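Record 1 of the preview.
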Amino acid sequence: NTEQLPVEELIRRQELIPQGEKTDVHVKSPAPHQDGEGLGEGNHCVALWAEDNIWYNAKILKIDQKAGKAEVEFTDYGNIDKVVLGNMYRTWSGVLSRSGVEDITVDPHVQTSNVGKPDSTSLLSLISTDQQGKKILTAVAVNTIPDMEGMVGLAVLLNGTLVTVVEEKENIVKMWNREGDCCGVVVGGRKFRQPADVVSLSCGGFAVMDKEGIMMFNVEGEFIKELVVDKLDTTFGMAVDCLGRLLTINRCLEGDEGKLTMKGHTDILYIDVEKERVVKRVEMIDIISERGTSDCRALTMHRDKLYVVDTGLDCIYTLFEEDGEDQAEVFGTPGRQETQFSGVSAVVVDDEGSMVISDTRNNRLQLISSEWDFEGFVKVLPRPLFRPSTMCLDRDVGQLVVYNQGHHEVVRYSMGSRD
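->
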C-alpha cells in the first residue's frame, strides 16, 4: 500500500510504484531547499525584515522547512537574518499580490517601477442582473472531482494546489492541480485518524487536523512535523492569523478532559506553531446565545477579522479588536429568506471583505457585502447546487471551489458574467 510508505522509501525503491503509474501520482518529489513560491537557496528575492517591517532586496542562503524560516542576506546592506518563508517573494509584484497594501513600506533599492497593484478578487464587481431583475453572481463549472463522499475540508495553497480531506471510511488527504487531476496522496508522520480540516499556511504549506492532533506539511505535501498541544479537547475548523498562529474551535464535550475549556463550553484557541502551545484564548460564553443548540464548526480569517460559523444556530460570529478590546458581531438567523440560513457551513471572504456564505440545506450560496448587506445569490452552471458545504477561494485565478455534499463532488467554478 503506497499510501502508508515513507517518502524516502518510495523514492529509493521504485519497484513499489504500481506498473504504469507515474511516481508523482503517489508522492511529489521532495524539495527541502525551496519555499512555497519555488524560491531556493541562492535565489534573489524581496524579503520582509521583522525588525523594522520594511521590504528589502535579499539573497536566500539557507532554508529550514521545519522551522518555516530562511536565512537571508539583505544584499544592499550586507546584514544576515532569518525571515519567515511566507515573507519572501520573487518580485515586488509578488508582495503586492499577497499582502494588504495599506501599510507596506519598501526600501528605495527595491525595483517597484512599472509595477501596479494587481487586480484584487472583488466579488461585488462580478454581479449582474438576470431577466427577472435579480442580482446574481454567475459561476460556471471549470472542472469537477467526483466520488468525494465524506469530504470534510479543503484549502487552496499559495501555488494553486487544492488539498482535500476525506474522513468517512478513507481517512485520506489528497492534492489536486487546477485542472482537477490528482497530483499526490499526503502521507503524514502517522496514519490520519478522523481528519477534520485543512488550512493553507503563509509559508506555502498546509496543516491537517485530525482526532489526535495537527500535522504540518510543506507545499509539496511532505510531512514536516506534528504539533504537540496538550490543551486541546474536541476541535473543529482551522484558520491562520497575520502572526502565523493557528486558530481552532475548542469544545469541551462529553469525555473530554477540559484542561482549558470548561465542560460544555466553546473557546477559540490561538496556537503558536513554533512554541507548540496555546498563547491566547477567546471564550465564546458571552457571545453564543444558546449554548445547548450552538455548534461552531468552521473558521475563516480575513486580515484582522475572524469569522466563526455556527451551524447549530445558523449564524456567523465576527471577532475583532477595537480600541484594544476584543469585540464581536453576530450575523444571520434561521430561515429561508435573504440573510437567513438553514445549515450555514462555510464563509469565504474576498479582498474587499465581501463574502460568499454556504447555505447548505437551502441549496444556495449567498453573497454578502462587508457591511453585512445582502447583495445576491451565486448562480452556478450548468448543474445546480446540492447541499453546498465547505468551500475556498483560489484568488490568483478568481475561482470558487465548492464541495457539493449532495452530489459528493468538488466543483471549481469560474466567477463572473457568462457571455
